[in-house]
Design a protein that fits this description.
This protein is α+β, with helices and mostly antiparallel strands. The protein is built from 2 helices and 8 strands, in the order E-H-E-E-E-E-H-E-E-E. The protein has helices at 15-24, 79-88; strands at residues 5-12, 28-33, 38-43, 46-52, 59-63, 93-95, 105-110, 116-121. The chain has an 8-stranded mixed β-sheet with strand order 2-3-4-1-5-8-7-6, covered by helices on one side. The chain is globular, with a radius of gyration of 15 Å. It starts with a strand and ends with a strand.
Length: 123
């Protein structure tokens, strides 16, 4: 099962301090809007999102249809097909995709330790 590009979405207290910290580790801004309290940063193939005031805890994020540079892939597994496969394996969902739709959609699940996993298809 290919879940797509991986990143971790971090909930931060001060996005400016966090940006400065991660820049000192070699990360560069890939996208986002600091004036809206969110940034996507990258170091090599590692991608992190910094989010201030948007959610309560960190989230493991997968993006079907994207590579690690947030570029569209020609071929990918649709989020609805991923959801169907996980349901068949007995995975419980926090939120689900309406399987009768097409295009952008997302679902969330939690691992056994309560870590939230977001599968977020943008196209």
């Amino acid at each position: 099962m290919n879940l797509g590009a991986f990143s971790i979405s971090l909930t931060v207290k001060d996005i400016h301090k966090s940006k400065e910290f991660y820049e000192s580790l070699g990360f560069q801004t890939l996208g986002g809007d600091i004036s809206q309290n969110w940034l996507i940063m990258k170091n090599g193939s590692t991608v992190i999102g910094l989010f201030q005031g948007m959610f309560d805890k960190n989230i493991l994020t997968f993006n079907p249809g994207w590579n690690q540079n947030a570029e569209n892939l020609d071929s990918f597994t649709d989020v609805r097909d991923i959801q169907k496969e996980l349901k068949a394996k007995g995975i419980k969902f926090s939120t689900e995709v309406d399987e009768s739709t097409e295009g952008p959609a997302h679902f969330t699940i939690e691992d056994p330790d309560g870590n939230q996993i977001l599968v977020d298809q943008h196209r």
